[in-house]
């Protein structure tokens, strides 16, 4: 899971540039795939919802089944508007019977908070961004084994949580999600302690460029890139975060109608591009002279070239026809590729 109106290029160097395959780059990529990676940037912002009506309030403003979430449970969900468009995604942790934390992209937390405040009428809840907590992300196949070695008793699977008490007396909540976990430190002062313990256990700090390469290769949508308040969940590969059996929530009728009647015009697709630079977000994807979609994210791999995610008209999502983009005045070949890339 910050977004931006204009995507910054992530590692735009070509494969021939030796910096592209530096030892640090290789180490980060290995940690994200096979080892234990510590996301080396503010991974989340926490919104806390507390009060007698907390469960009912969140249940009516998110796509997930919040009312059925047990204390200690973790759920990946979406915040949608009345049109069914995705405003943000979030990891929800039910800390107590009436206390919830939503972890969002840092630049989207204010948007979510404003949406919640606008819909709090007579609800007995308090809502706010919890600036007193700090947040980290963990990824990689070996993150559970690595954290067990420093005293975390039972690293949680997706949907679960665990309280980790460090030998120093610091405490942190570990929230199991995909593709790894989120750590919610109980105080911002704990961040440095937790980071040092994790690095001592073998976690490799990774920069945003590395985590973006892994995200795109996995085909994972991100707020501010694949969606920015203008698309339905099914148009960006997020229908798995929607409960089609829960009660009413903002945008439910639109989402249900589009899903059940098959009226979804676009879908998320993988794109392989010829070239050595990552095109900007919103670069049109063309078939002949017609626009059939747009690039949402693009990254450069030292050995794989340019991989991208794109929002594409459904009739073109499985196309083997010639597609292309025009970037920096040059026409570049583009080929639809199944997601995730890494299974190819």
Task: Compile the SSE list and pairings.
Layout: H1 23-33, E1 37-39, E2 45-50, H2 54-59, E3 74-80, E4 86-94, E5 99-104, H3 109-118, E6 126-129, E7 134-139, H4 143-148, E8 161-165, E9 171-176, E10 181-185, H5 191-200, E11 204-206, H6 208-218, H7 252-260, E12 266-273, E13 284-287, E14 290-301, E15 305-313, E16 323-327, E17 330-337
Parallel strand pairs: 1-11
Antiparallel strand pairs: 1-7, 2-5, 2-6, 3-4, 4-5, 7-10, 8-9, 9-10, 12-15, 12-17, 13-14, 14-15, 16-17
Helix pairs in contact: 1-6
Helix content: 10-25%
What distance separates the N and C termini?
23 Å
Instruction: Please state the overall shape, judged from the principal axes of the Cα atoms.
Output: globular
Low-confidence stretches: 2-19
Strand order in space, largest sheet: 8-9-10-7-1-11
- Mean pLDDT across all amino acids: 89
| Proportion of strand residues | 25-35%
CATH class of the domain at 34-200 and 232-255, anyone? Alpha Beta
Order of helices and strands: HEEHEEEHEEHEEEHEHHEEEEEE
Helix count, DSSP H or I runs of 4 or more residues: 7
State the major sheet: 6 strands, mixed
CATH topology of the domain at 34-200 and 232-255: Gyrase A, domain 2
Category by helix and strand content: alpha+beta
Please provide the count of β strands: 17
CATH superfamily of the domain at 34-200 and 232-255: Probable tRNA modification gtpase trme, domain 1
Detailed description of the structure:
This protein is α+β, with helices and mostly antiparallel strands and 344 residues long. It has a domain of 191 residues: 2-Layer Sandwich (Gyrase A, domain 2). The protein is built from seven helices and 17 strands. Helix 1 packs across helix 6. The chain is globular, with a radius of gyration of 20 Å. The N terminus is likely disordered.
